[in-house]
Specification:
536 residues, alpha/beta, TIM Barrel, eight-stranded parallel barrel, three-stranded mixed beta sheet, 17 helices, 15 strands
């Protein structure tokens, strides 16, 4: 049932985005190539072969986008820094890009001037391509020191003003999609070891950066360093079946626990070590495909997070499913489980993203129980649409945000230590291997228009009301928000239609008229030649 009430005073409301998905300017002002630049420039890797070369042109539209943040009345903005924009090869001793550093300085200053707190992620997937080519990226242990140098440069240049740092955003996707399935950059399919090895190096890198901040910067800068982990919730198909309950537990431990357990408890989850170890032995391997931490590393990694960022989008029902050991084992078959969905769950956008708000409360309570009730910031939560025509009256996003935010309010009443919420995302943007076909934005972008104008969807108006009221005061007021939000999008639709017509006319002017003019000249020349021949 829906719970009416307000969040504690000082609860932080914000929105987020990431560098590669929004900035564009992929080769401008001294920026080096990232693995996503290389990946998207290969045919067949991304839907319709789209790229983030220009994305939302966010590199040139900082002031415009900060106006949108002011319009939303958010407390914070979660952004990421592009490693190759400030360090083109990824190696500090080789080259620094002052223009890139200036860009982020200007962005951070503009946010603070407008009373918006920057929450900065050091890594949202755009590894410098040079490090991938030279060393194999996150397969190589040398990344630990290269990333630590980069992080320390960011602390040095921006840490006097940035007080909330995220080392990695959704490292699960970096490891699994980048080094096992190959769906994401760098597009490698390294069998049963690639993802585990990449994750192992990422966890050790995170710990090194936390210790660097702790020993060198914390006393002077008084900031916090955490990590942002994205996880679904796994619910047993039959809650009375021990095998289903165990399968649901594995679902969470292989997803969230893979990274959270070492950081909060000092090692990989026992169930993960047992299952991967057993499957590795059945394959005849001499040791587990899941790497191990030494005793010294366990101590070094444990406790290296001042807060836990949580990204959450959806839920699955889970049941036991055995995969024969003769199959080529990998992350997905190591878990011995199957995922199901309830056909009654709303699926407003892509087929993977079902709206199941109650799963969020359960996930938050799981974190409270498993990891000693850490300080939590929700770093990503939102829903996308896949329809190609503009969808400004996004009723489904309003219902999604209302439901999921309400479950956070219930979790707070359960005693979960959540201090902030970040809606994902500010703008429609480049959505990785899906290109521009999925749109998560509160603001619609017309990518066909060279100016890439931003238009508020109905959810902008609704989210603003939640922020202003700091929650859901009473049924009548909340219902009124819904009505006003839906009214607001009708007006915006008219503006968008008018602008689209103008854009179409401009295209006609720019392309069709010069073409017609050229044809007329050619026809005149041909006629003149015929005339002269006849005369002679």
């Amino acid at each position: 049932s829906f719970y009416y009430g307000t969040f504690p005073a000082g609860f932080l409301w914000g929105v987020g985005s990431s560098a590669y998905q929004t900035e564009g300017a992929w080769d401008k002002d001294g920026k080096g190539p990232s693995i996503w630049d290389a990946f998207t420039h290969q045919k067949g890797k991304v839907f319709r072969n789209e790229t983030g070369d220009s994305a939302c042109d966010g590199y040139y539209r900082v002031k415009d986008d900060i106006q949108l943040l002011k319009e939303l009345k958010v407390n914070h903005y979660l952004l990421s820094i592009s490693w190759p924009r400030i360090m083109p090869t990824g190696i500090k001793t080789e080259q620094l890009n002052e223009k890139g550093i200036q860009f982020y300085n200007d962005t951070i200053n503009s946010l603070l001037e407008n009373n918006i707190t920057p929450i900065v992620s050091l890594y949202h997937w755009d590894l410098p391509q040079v490090l991938q080519e030279k060393y194999g990226g996150w397969q190589n242990i040398s990344m630990i020191n290269y990333f630590n140098d980069y992080a320390n440069l960011c602390f040095e240049k921006f840490g006097d003003r940035v007080k909330h740092w995220i080392t990695f955003s959704n490292p699960w996707a970096v490891a699994e999609n980048g080094y096992e399935t190959g769906e994401h950059a760098p597009g490698l399919k390294l069998g049963g070891c690639g993802a585990y090895k990449a994750a192992h190096h990422i966890i050790k890198t995170h710990a090194k950066v936390w210790h660097s901040y702790n020993s060198t910067w914390r006393r002077e800068q008084q900031g916090m360093v955490g990590i942002s982990l994205t996880s679904g919730w796994g619910e047993p198909v039959d809650p009375h079946s021990q095998t289903d309950r165990d399968a649901a537990e594995r679902y969470i431990q292989f997803h969230l626990g893979w990274f959270a357990n070492p950081i909060y408890r000092g090692d990989y989850p026992e169930v993960m070590k047992n299952y991967v170890g057993r499957k590795s032995a059945q394959q005849g391997l001499g040791r587990s495909r899941l790497p191990t931490f030494s005793l010294q590393e366990k101590t070094y990694i444990k406790g290296t997070s001042d807060f836990l960022g949580i990204g959450h989008f959806t839920t699955r029902y889970v049941l036991q499913k055995n995969f024969p050991f003769l199959q080529v084992s990998g992350y997905h078959t190591d878990r011995d489980l199957a995922e199901l969905v309830d056909p009654k769950w709303p699926v407003p956008g892509p087929k993977w993203l079902y709206s199941v708000p109650w799963g969020f409360r359960r996930l938050l309570n799981f974190i409270k129980t498993q990891y000693g009730n850490p300080l939590i910031y929700v770093t990503e939560n939102g829903v996308s649409e896949t329809l190609q025509c503009p969808q400004l009256c996004d009723e489904w996003r309003i219902q999604y945000l209302k439901g999921y935010i309400n479950e956070i309010l219930k979790a707070l009443n359960d005693g979960v230590n959540v201090k902030g919420y970040t809606a994902w995302s500010l703008l429609d943007k480049f959505e990785w291997n899906k290109g521009f076909s999925e749109r998560f934005g509160l603001y619609h972008i017309d990518f066909k228009n060279k100016n890439k104008p931003r238009y508020p969807k109905a959810s902008v108006d609704y989210y603003k009301k939640i922020i202003s009221a700091n929650g859901f005061p009473n049924p009548r007021e909340v219902e009124n928000w819904h009505r006003k939000a839906m009214d607001s999008c009708s007006t915006t639709h008219q503006h968008l239609a008018a602008d689209s017509l103008i854009t179409h006319m401009e295209m006609v002017t720019e392309i069709v008229l010069p073409t017609v003019f050229t044809l007329c000249i050619l026809i005149c020349i041909v006629l003149l030649i015929f005339y002269l021949r006849n005369q002679s």
